[in-house]
Write a structure and sequence with these properties.
By secondary structure, this protein is an alpha/beta fold. The chain is built from 6 helices and 5 strands; from the N terminus they run αβαβαβαβαβα. α2 runs parallel beside α3. It is globular and about 40 Å long.
Length: about 170
């Protein structure tokens, strides 16, 4: 895993009436990519937006912005192709949301996207580490997913530290 830090602001709390302008402001301020929380009301209780928003942003922002799709959905396999067609660059899914992570990782790559893998706070980091050599990004959740405005769970930091010290896993 590369040690360079990248910044990807979450657009979830943007003013939806001026979403393109908000995204341009983030990119002009130095964001490396845009992070889009996709929630479907099953894996988490909230509902946000889906591939039509990505497609619209692509149309207005062009091909340069890198879109990280953070899929807080049940059956992430269901939304893979629509997100790829819409222009998503990285498809980040929860290990806990799929029965076959290996097949999904393969399908993501075959659809031209990078792979991000996430675990819930209750999941052991070793479960994520088993997939390290097949992914581009690991995400350890430090809050209860699906709700904004939470305090970071400090007890998740050892998981982050452990992943950082396991560089042999990422080659």
């Amino acid at each position: 895993m590369a040690s360079s830090c990248k910044t990807g602001p979450d657009i979830l709390n943007s003013n939806l009436a001026s979403l393109v302008a908000g995204c341009l402001q983030m990119l002009d301020s130095g964001a490396d990519y845009l992070h889009l929380d996709v929630m479907g009301g099953h894996f988490v209780p909230s509902i946000t937006f889906g591939h039509p928003v990505v497609e619209s942003l692509q149309k207005h922002l062009g091909q340069d912005p890198f879109f990280n799709m953070y899929m807080m959905v049940s059956r992430p396999e269901q939304w893979l192709k629509p997100m790829a067609i819409a222009g998503a660059n990285r498809y980040t899914f929860y290990l806990e949301a799929t029965e076959n992570p290996g097949a999904l990782i393969k399908d993501i790559r075959e659809n031209g996207m990078k792979v991000g893998l996430t675990i819930k706070p209750v999941t052991t980091v070793e479960y994520l580490a088993a997939w390290a050599n097949q992914i581009d990004m690991a995400l350890v959740m430090t809050v209860i997913l699906g709700f904004g405005g939470q305090k970071v769970m400090d007890n998740m930091m050892p998981k982050v530290h452990w992943l950082r010290t396991q560089s042999h896993l990422w080659t």
